[in-house]
Amino acid sequence: MITHKHLRTVIEDIYLNDNELTEELLIRLIHEFRYSNLYIPAKRENNTLNFIIYEDEEAKITPLFTDLDEFHKFYKDDDIQVLNNPFELYQNIIKTTDIEGFILNPASEKYLFKKEFILSIENIPKTNFYATNPYSEDELRDIYASIDNSELEAFVDNPANIGDYEMLFEKLTHSRLLTLMLSDYDLSPKADDGLISQKETGPVASMYIDNVGGRYATIFSSRPRLDEPATSKYRYAQLIDLATLVNFVLTEDMDGIILNPQSSNVLIPRLTLLRYSLGFERFANDERLFESIYYLFL
Length: 298
Description:
Blueprint: H1 5-16, H2 23-34, E1 39-45, E2 48-51, E3 54-55, E4 60-64, H3 68-74, E5 80-84, H4 87-96, E6 101-104, E7 111-114, H5 115-120, H6 137-145, H7 150-156, H8 165-173, E8 177-183, E9 195-197, H9 198-201, E10 206-207, E11 209-210, E12 216-219, E13 234-240, H10 242-251, E14 256-259, E15 266-269, H11 270-283, E16 295-297
Parallel strand pairs: 4-6, 12-14
Antiparallel strand pairs: 1-2, 1-5, 3-4, 6-7, 8-10, 8-13, 9-16, 11-12, 14-15
Helix pairs in contact: 1-2, 10-11
């Protein structure tokens, strides 16, 4: 369950800074809001679901919650429902109603975000990646067979390049990348010329996540590198769209991405992904790969 721990950390840091919003804290706060999926309470009346609004002498405000635990701390009534939405919807609520702000986690932080701040946040990320002409199965096979990321591997395996994220991201943008998918099942009997369709098998594999010191998505530069992490499960490769993966990591409140764990071990922390997220969306987005999540390679 998403808890928005990174958003809460920024707010805690603001409190620790005597509520002074420095430029660095403001940037972090805006980044986390852009990728948030906060909860809003609603109540059904006359077959209509209405957001709950509190009104005092100063303003009309609506509570938002980082997670269900915070929601249940504040609301004990069973007739109050909760809805999970991307940040763009909350901007639209502010634009189209007389709500003047949101109070986050009223049972804990009680942090008020006014209308002006909510509407000032720009460059809201895409909520879906879709194309009308996805790669066919044969095209996916050809892409997989032709993967050659030797330039990327030479770059990341050179210690002199540690911390050069701009050049790393340029290399990643021009690479065909893989992720490791793990399954309890031997799916080789289901393969058609090396390709397994989860449209036919159902969701039988999940992404390998590195949980050392946080939750990190993992990407790989070649099929041999997929064999390096230790696991007792069956391994399969999956082509990824880098922009989609970055969006997933940020909206799922993960801590970052690791490239080639157990070999190159290149850590890309969340703060760095946030800083470059719009660049990934614009320059590392092959929308025709949007159906690649349904396919596994032996």
